Task: structure prediction
Amino acid sequence: MLSPAGKCSFSFALDAEGAPTYRLFYGKKEVVQTSRMAVMLKDLPAFEKGFSIVKVDSMSYDGTWKPVWGEVASIRNHYKELAVTLQQASVNGRKWVIRFRLYDDGLGFRYEFPAQQGFKHFIVSQEKTEFDLVGDHKTFWIPGDYDTNEYAYNTSALSAVNGLAGGVANEIHARSPIGTNFVQTPLMMKTADGLYLNIHEAALVNYPAMNLEIDKTTFKLTSTLVPDAVGNMAYLQAPFNTPWRTVLVSDKAADILASKTILNLNEPSKITDPSWIKPTKYVGIWWEMHVGTSTWDYAGTQDGTGLENAASLKPSGKHGATTARVKTYIDFAAKHGFDGVLVEGWNTGWEDWFGQWKEDVFDFITPYPDFNVTELSAYAKSKNVHIIMHHETSGSVTNYERWMDQAYDFMNKNGYTAVKTGYVGRIIPRGEHHDGQWMVNHFNRVAAKTAQRRIMLDAHEPVRPTGLHRTYPNWLACEAARGNEFNAWSVGNPPEHETILPFTRLMGGPMDYTPGIFQIKLNHFTPSKTEQVHTTLAKQLALYVTMYSPLQMAADLPEIYEQHLDAFQFIKDVAVDWDDTQYLEAEPGDYLSIARKAKGSSDWFLGAITDENGRKAILPLTFLDKNQTYVATVYADAADAHWQLNPQAYKITSTLVTRENVMNIYLAAGGGAAVRFKVATAEEKRTLKKY
Ligand code: NOJ
Ligand code: CA
Result:
């Protein structure tokens, strides 16, 4: 079968053992060699071989839909479909359907277990979907792991992957690496002849996440699922459809970033009236805890007797989320046009939450004595700002499930319209993993429940996203990777990190990366602190454009922004919702330049970033609207800037440009540039210089 414009093709066949197989081509190049597809069951014969083909249905589809928010105003869903119905004569004629959707940028397929006589409840013990690659591709990988995706990326040939490396010290709280040959998806690869490949999944619902095992001599990847506490993978009932397995391919890296295939494979929005969902820029009582100038807890270290209760706590004097401090953030947000103020550490429990498998730590409704809920709700409302709720579960998800309804009632009552959830630590029920079926169901239940309550959602430490924000557009963002916070208290994120994330983690959906750190060296806050952010200040600005999210934090402290109001202006101006996006240049691990057109406006924004190597970005402005002159305000690294040696040196210049111009912007080592293009006024046309 050929894709709509003929760029990709694939074929399906049963092999000599009656096992289903597929092959995928990009043009004439084979991308996936004959690969088997199988699902193993506990105590029942596998869906693996001995099949015959009952029927083959094909169709094509071409439609367009409008996301509630996004990188573009409308999305074309254009594919050819093949649904193969198979039958296993030796298992009472049991039926199975494999559905393929072929796009011009890749293939998606899923397994369907139809309702049928004698086959209802079943337990998946493993899935063996193969991706038999044609070579030892260069790959951008993090270790396969059942609990965390907060690793730094490695770049190596498939044969050189070491899935047990990369977990540095204890900086990731709950790790369950699978083994030497295992990696996570989205897995980004580049072939020797210049093809870019990306393997992931779409619409992860009621099923565990997929990791991949690498055969280092044949370069065949095989799926492996995340088990539950007793070693099973999924408890299912027919009819059931698995998530889609996706293979994206192009000879241009930018096409991988532009792909909408994962979103298209997800179900349409379940929210009929999305008018309350608002892309949001926010500040918050957050970074100050990560850099250590204040604390989540109210009372500091307790005496260890475990007898403390909220009433008997004595203030340590370092608590961040005080009524007074929250008010200064609300004032700052109102003054500078931010919609939200995240407040962490507002509720009791933080004195003794960190560790493993602690039960009943938080209740999500009891504030500390110095956080006045009613007063702050009224104050925020008077300033037209929303406080963003924080629900750290400490991994005790049974506890959160018990409190969820009350917690969301509390939010509705007090005017909170968004919640940030968190899952630090091992999961309770004990033995479950962050990426297993039980937790996948929990994360999706939170999305559905918050949607019913008109609450927007930002999940930290969740399973990696798979495009479910199409179905639940109230689910604005997830963390699900190594965020900027790692720069505050670990070896940090190397300068190439942000050039890889869009090709990996962000393939599944927006990331709450929390950019905008201006105070790069953290000894500013505590002299003994040796950590630093591994970028220049200008690159932190560029991230608002390169790291797509409808939820963006200005993560640094108000006091720091007050010292750099000229650079802060970009964060105030930058949009969080877009009508159009153009990927100007991209190479995973090296650099990235993206231009986006603000929703309902002629303004454009551009972000360009580089890794540890400085470079000159050459940027034709052909994306700009025709017959318009723009003021281009460039926030760039100074000539002597360097992420390590001189990270805060930037310069801001404004000139007149049109779509005929080509901009040359110098990006320092570990640096970047941000540009705002605003339609010029008559006055500006007279007074400003041309580029
Ligand atoms: C980890 C989250 O990523 C971070 O944003 C949060 O501040 C802490 N957990 C505490 O909940
Ligand atoms: Ca985290």
